Amino acid sequence: MTAPEDSPASVVPPLRRRGEPMRRAVLSAAVELLSREGLAGATVAAVARAAGVHETSVYRRWRTRENLILDALTSELDSALPIPDTGRVREDLLAFFDRLARLLGTPQGHALLRLSVERDDTLDDRRGPYWRDRLDRAVVMVRRGVQRGELAPGTDPGLLVEAVSGPLFVRALLSRAPLDEALVTGLVDLALDGARPGRPAGT
């Protein structure tokens, strides 16, 4: 006779994961749940269950659900979007934003987009710093271009990065139109055209 689905005999006991294997399992489970169910489904209990670890282990390491979610998304985004250094600002930006466009077409990318607009009082105050930190990583490419003389000295690195990333986010979030290489190239070149040395300000 089989045990009912909700009986103790049918519950798979958590695995005895520790250290880095436990961290990777929990973060992967968190991103997967965020991708499928959004913030509402990414509870600590659900993440622990999906990762096969004890809920107390998750709380012991991350303390709060908010810390867990931000760590999961930071790890996912930073590993998926390394900052290239080809020696040319255009090549750096093309490589970076091509990776971003590809990421936005995945379930993980959709989770990131959903977190940008989904209301959650416990996360609202922390999403601003999270995205500013990600932006600070990307502006390094533009600053290097300014230092090499490829871009005008007065170029605003953050504004240039936003000029490319903004349309990608809007298209992925609202229209779901393709985020292809031609689009990335067009946006990068359009942004760079306004930051080339010798271009009069405001023209």
UniProtKB/TrEMBL annotation:
InterPro entries the record matches: Homeodomain-like_sf, HTH-type_TetR-like_transc_reg, HTH_TetR, Tet_transcr_reg_TetR-rel_C_sf, TetR_C
Residue intervals of the HTH tetR-type domain: 20-80
Keyword Transcription regulation in record: yes
Keyword Nucleotide-binding among UniProt keywords: no
DNA-binding region (UniProt annotation): 43-62
Keywords: DNA-binding, Transcription, Transcription regulation
Name of this chain's protein: TetR family transcriptional regulator
Organism: Streptomyces daghestanicus
